[in-house]
Amino acid sequence: MAIYVVGHKNPDTDSITAAIAYADLYSKTKGEAVAVAQGALNPESAFVLEKFGIAAPEVVNAFEGKQIALVDHSDLAQAPDDLAKAELVAIVDHHKLGDVTTPNPIEIWVWPVGCSGTVLKNMYDFYGVEIPKGIAGALCCAILSDTVMFKSVTCTDADKKAAEELAKIAGITDMMALGMDMFKVKSAVEGTPIRDLVFRDYKDFDMSGKKVGIGQLEVVDLSILDGVKAALQEEIGKVKAEGRHSVFLMLTDIMKEGTELLIVSDDPVVVEKAFGVSTSGDPVWLDGVMSRKKQVVPNFEKAFAG
User: Fold this and answer.
1) pLDDT at 146 over 90
2) What is the pLDDT of residues 12-60, one digit of tens each?
3) Is there a single domain that holds both residue 294 and residue 153?
4) Fewest CB atoms within 10 Å of the CB: 65, 154, 207, 235?
5) Bridge partner residues of 186 (DSSP)
6) Quick one: which of 89, 75, 41, 80 has its CA closest to 61?
């Protein structure tokens, strides 16, 4: 029986490419595996797969009775809704260990690095399996994306080393130029429905029993979003009304290296608790904040717990 390898809801480039890579590695070391996704590709992911000639994973949202491997997440809020009816056999991730549980031992690779692609590169090395050229290119792109071209505080020397080695395999001669091409694609908002922008890179979290949504839009210049900012604010209000305590949308300027945070919350004081910036719900600028994983989620978790 084939295992299904799947990333988190609202998949980003790391989630998509990690699923493709782990399915490839698993099929060469353990047994049959197929990469799938919990949603459609975002523009950046579509750009990456097209560039390296890789087919997009099928969208699958029902896993009852199937064996499943999770990549790029281990939180139930981001996992398939029917995960409890599937058999979890592996986790490959670079975030905090979430709240999934299993009745049996499983293979887990969870490293404190900037991207699941870095973990996958080292897994290929560990198992002595050659990385296909296209997959190497896709994983390199995922590292560039997740580490914001090595600018993010999540970036480690292991990420840089993995990206360099993957670039050589893939024949990438200028990683920074490729990274800028990706972020230009990611920055494009014209013609995109506002709700799709909110959910382009969005995750729900359970914070002390409260459902909290945190999305992120990374752009090369924040002015790109001037024409849609009011609509984004209105839309996250609608998303909050669907049963969440708070929704925050990070508008991250990768050149200025900071984030404007849009806020809708039952208790905006949590923003001050998390970042020391007072607000009644108006947007705030967070200088130097670029990582949801390392700079935003942990701060909010402490704020909600307090």
Assistant:
1) yes
2) 999 999 999 999 999 999 999 999 999 999 999 999 999 999 999 999 9
3) no
4) 65
5) none
6) 80
Question: What is the average per-residue pLDDT within 144-151?
Answer: 95
- Work out whether the CA dihedral 219, 210, 93, 2 comes out positive or negative: negative
CA distances from 285 to 187, 233, 249, 255, 282 (A): 19, 15, 12, 14, 10
Tokens of 290: 């670029």
Which of 2, 79, 62 has its CA nearest to residue 35? 2
CA of 164: how far to CAs of 109, 115, 160, 283, in Å? 21, 14, 6, 37
H or E element: which one contains 24? helix 13-29
Cα–Cα distance for residue pair 35/50, rounded to 1 Å: 16
Backbone angles phi, psi at 51, to 5 degrees: -60, -35
Residue 189 is assigned to a structural domain of this protein: no
Are the C-beta atoms of 52 and 29 separated by less than 8 Å?
no
Burial of 257 (0-12, 13-18, 19+ CB in 10 A): middle
Cα–Cα distances (Å) from 169 to 133, 138, 165, 173, 182, in that order, read 6, 11, 6, 10, 19
Pair 177, 204 in one domain: no
Of 147, 166, 184, at which residue does a domain stop? 184
Average pLDDT over residues 173-180: 96
Q: In this structure, are 42 and 166 located in the same domain?
A: yes
CATH number for the domain spanning 296: value is: 3.10.310.20
Residues 261 and 142 in one domain: no
Q: Which of 98, 4, 138, 13 is nearest to 59 (CA)?
A: 4
100 and 12, same structural domain? yes
In DSSP terms, 212 is beta-bridged to 205, 246
Q: If residue 197 lies in a helix (H) or strand (E), which one and from where to where?
A: helix 194-198
Counting Cα atoms < 13 Å in the Cβ hemisphere of 253 gives 17
